[in-house]
């Protein structure tokens, strides 16, 4: 199968959405190696359509503008599956992928026909009846409803029953390494969806149900998202170690499932590489981060922050070698239960 992937994120390969698209491509390639062309639209020279209709009148099928679109149109008409991979921008598509879409005009004929639902359209210049379309998109909010309505309508009008969708709300969380457990499980569902799509050219209800599940419930997501905007960047745009550390702890607090505690717990962390101490106060209804006025601890761990991050990202679970790198004081049982407190 010839697959054309249109990466419409201005962030190119750093795109959140492309992470999902790559997982889908891994899945679709499990059964058979497909011929995949991945185009980073942001790096292509694509002028805006001039609306001159020269591609309909003087030079049928050929645009007057000499840029990358002539090559891209060839790829487009020779593809069996078009994957539209882009973030949601202002409830629609980013401007450069819209420019790409407008420039597909030479692939249509000028005559007007009436479609099933009494709306109008132009017939295609080429027989693309076999072509399928998949919209893969991520967005910043947690909701699909009210957010994607306009884009869905547009894509449904254009591609009708040939369209499938993978939509990922809370998309910025794809970037948070500490949440890799939840993110990787989503990406493995996307991989499975890719395999299924290869066989059936659509997704089952069960797959859609899995893919529709939010990473985190809205109230936790909003806390996580709002926290990340509070970060003070250094002059060169990097986040300082202390800010990253404090954000991380506040994220931990937001993800905490307080129904797991049978008693209040003061969990103290001393990060040996940064020489900083923090406490997580795990109480019945809340989990808070303390940076001063410390309380007597239930459990204290002395550990390099780098190693703590690796634990939380699931990159290690404490080898014999690592055991010499940290010390635990007080109720050591709490450390073993910690993962279940943050199972969110
Ligand atoms: C200009 C702009 C407009 C955006 N508009 C929306 C929007 O309407 N709804 C939404 O949920 N997220 C919106 N977002 C957030 C992005 O869709 C979100 O961060 C996405 O995951 C980025 O994906 P990418 O890394 O693939 O570019 C917007 C972001 C930008 C920069």
TrEMBL record:
Swiss-Prot/TrEMBL keywords: Flavoprotein, FMN
Domain Flavodoxin-like fold stretches: 1-118
InterPro entries on file: Flavodoxin_fold, Flavoprotein-like_sf, ISF_SsuE-like, SCP2_sterol-bd_dom_sf
Origin: domain of life: Bacteria
PANTHER family in alphabetical order: NAD(P)H-DEPENDENT FMN-CONTAINING OXIDOREDUCTASE YWQN-RELATED
Protein name: NAD(P)H dehydrogenase (Quinone)
Species this protein is from: Sebaldella termitidis (strain ATCC 33386 / NCTC 11300)
């Amino acid at each position: 199968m010839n697959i054309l992937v249109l990466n419409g994120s201005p962030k190119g390969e750093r795109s959140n959405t492309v992470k999902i698209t790559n997982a889908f491509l891994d899945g679709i390639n499990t059964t058979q190696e497909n011929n995949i062309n991945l185009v980073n639209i942001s790096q292509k020279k694509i002028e805006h359509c001039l609306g001159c209709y020269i591609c309909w009148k003087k030079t049928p099928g050929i645009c007057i503008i000499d840029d990358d679109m002539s090559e891209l149109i060839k790829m487009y008409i020779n593809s069996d599956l078009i994957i539209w991979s882009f973030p949601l921008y202002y409830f629609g598509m980013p401007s450069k992928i819209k420019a790409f879409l407008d420039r597909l005009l030479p692939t249509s004929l000028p005559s007007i026909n009436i479609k099933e639902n009494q709306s109008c359209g132009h017939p295609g210049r080429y027989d693309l009846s076999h072509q399928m379309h998949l919209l893969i998109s991520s967005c910043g909010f947690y909701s699909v409803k009210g957010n994607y309505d306009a884009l869905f309508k547009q894509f449904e009008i254009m591609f009708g029953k040939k369209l499938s969708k993978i939509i990922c709300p809370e998309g910025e969380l794809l970037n948070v390494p500490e949440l890799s457990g939840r993110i990787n499980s989503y990406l493995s569902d996307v991989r499975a969806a890719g395999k299924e799509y290869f066989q059936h050219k659509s997704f089952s209800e069960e797959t859609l149900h899995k893919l529709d599940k939010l990473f985190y419930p809205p109230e936790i997501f909003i806390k996580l998202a709002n926290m990340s905007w509070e970060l003070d960047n250094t002059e060169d745009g990097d986040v300082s170690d202390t800010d990253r550390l404090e954000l991380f702890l506040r994220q931990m607090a937001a993800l905490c499932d307080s129904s797991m505690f049978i008693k209040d717990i003061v969990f103290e962390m001393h990060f040996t590489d940064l020489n900083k101490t923090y406490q997580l106060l795990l109480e019945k209804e809340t989990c808070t981060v303390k940076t001063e006025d410390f309380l007597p601890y239930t459990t204290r761990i002395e550990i390099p922050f780098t190693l703590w991050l690796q634990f939380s990202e699931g990159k290690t679970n404490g080898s014999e070698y690592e055991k010499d790198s940290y010390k635990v004081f007080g109720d050591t049982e709490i450390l073993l239960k910690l993962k279940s407190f943050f199972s969110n």
